[in-house]
Structure formats: C-alpha cells, structure tokens
Amino acid sequence: MEGKLLIEKLLKYAKSYLHLNEYDEVYVRNILLSILKIPCPYEQDLDFNIQSMDVPDKLWQELIRYALDNGLADKDSAERFCTDIFGLLTPKPSEINKEFLLIRQQNGIQAACDYLYDICVKNGYIQKTAIAKNLKWEAKEGDNKLEITINLSKPEKSNKDVAKLLTIPQGKKYPDCVLCKENEGFEGTLTHPARRNLRTVKVNLGGEKWFMQYSPYAYYDEHCIVINEEHVPMYVDQKTPDKLLDFVDAFPNYFIGSNASLPIVGGSILNHEHYQGGRHIMPMHYAKIKKQYTKPEFSDLNVGILDWFNSVIQIEGKDRQSVAAFGAEVITKWKEFSCPECEIINMTDKTPHLQKGRR
Ligand SMILES: [Zn+2]
What we know:
Shape: elongated
Bound molecules: zinc ion
C-alpha cells in the first residue's frame, strides 16, 4: 500500500511541478510500478497535499526510505535510485529545449531561464536545501568589496568512500569527465555523479555547438555552466571574446566569464572547455577605472585598468566587433608578454605558461 501511494504522490508532484503531460501519466505510472516492483496501482481517493513544495526533499526522503526498506537499493545506491526516478519524471531534453525556445520567444529569456531553473530545483538536480547552508559575507576594502562564500553544500568524500574508490578498477571512463554532454541522463556510478535528472539547453558560441546547464552547488543566483559539446581542454585565444559575446547576446540576463587556459586552477576542471556565468553582478563589475587608455584604431572604445585586486582591463563600447577585436588583441599580446622585474614570465624553456594551442 505504501509503495502504491508513493507512486501516486510522485505522479501528482510531477504533474504540478515537472510539467508531466496528462497523456504520459498512465505510461509513467506503469514504469514506476515496474521499478518499484508493484503489480497494480493505488485505487482509493488520494488525500495528498503537494501545494507549497519548494523542493522535492520530503518526497525524495520518502522514496529513499521505501527503496532501502524494500531492498530496491542499498546505502550506496539509494541516492542514484532516487535521481533515476526524478529523472524519469522530468521532460526529455528535446522537450526542454523546445519549451525553452518557445518561452524565450513569447516571454523573454529570463522567463525561459526560470522555466529550466525551476525544473532543475524541483527534480532535485539543483541542491537548493544544501545551498542554503553555504556561509556568505561581504568584506569591504576602500571603494571595493569582496563577496566570500564557503561552499558547504558540496558533499565531501569520507575516508571510507576514498578507500572504496581505490578498489574500483580503472578502465575507459564514460563519460570522459563530469562536464561532457554524455552526462545528461547518466545513471551514475560510485565514482561518477548520477545525472539522470540533469537537463541542458543548446547554445551556439563562435559557430561551435555548446550547451548551458545550472550548477548543482551554486555560489550565487542561477549559477550556470556553459560547456563545449566536444571534450576539448580550456583554451583562451582570439576567438574567446566572440564566444563570450555570443553567450551574452543569447542570455543578456546573465554574466559570463572564462577561466584561464591552464591545466589546473584550484579545484576547477580545465580539461573540458567551459565558462561560468549566472544572474549576478560580481563585485568586480562595480570597480571603477583607475587609469584610462586610448588607442587610435579603437577610438570608439572606453578602455582602462580597474582599481581591483588583480589585473583587469575593462573594455566598454557600443560596437560588438570593435570590443571583440580589442579583446583578441589583448589576449595575443598577453601571451607574448614578459616582465622579469615584476616576475611575469610567459614561458619556461619552451613551455608557455598558458596551455599550448590545440587548433
Ligand atoms: Zn568532458
């Protein structure tokens, strides 16, 4: 009885929050019956209130308990089991992309982003409850401020988990990394996160196929990751400003930023080209210009070095081509630039301090 009722709750939840179409209801009910190994559905009236469910946590926990009690999953696989079911309740990637475009046309880009973001929260992909535990504060210094976040939402591996991981044979990895497009719908393993409930939208950057998804452990509002469909390393070159501008043309409600093309920066994964962005104005965006520069060929641009904690050149202009061309020139010059007196060195022997070109 408990399992039958649980299936009805899941269906009602999916109809209310995950856009489950009534034509798909019987079909999805039958799949849930198979997965939960129940022969026939609940037949009495349903007395279940799903109003005001901001997050799926309560249902998720109920499902975990049911799976453990009935031997459908063990402690190691219970989260994957739930992710699988919430993924099943979520529209397929093709439907998400279709709806995203339609909403963008009718109600604008923010409404389209709200649609995707809300689905990703309601299907448990974005860990909203965990994110709320992050510590956050501002530090002021002169005219500038920094925003400091301690990310407590990302689960750390225990010593036991690590010991278990070491016993797993290392074969060919699939997906290649956690950013690859093959993660969308991936069941997950002990070493790779479950992504059955991940949904992404396509975007074209610099003539290449890319996609946008949200970060499950956000540091700021609508923290998104924009990823190349190809598993190629981070690479900053003359084309980068154009790709970034293509993104803000498609998503004028979000900012975007690129990592350096170095193999490792902190904990970032730079073996797969990606950018990060979102609905946030970063403290650096408020910084003022410290020193203004001019260049005759770019007289339409406002260029200056910011009063900021690290080296920033701000380029402001109304002509996209001009901004991109100046950005490309700065990148080219920076790769060749050395100033040993101030300990800026662009190359050691013949190895550039930027990752070698891949194209
Ligand atoms: Zn990858």
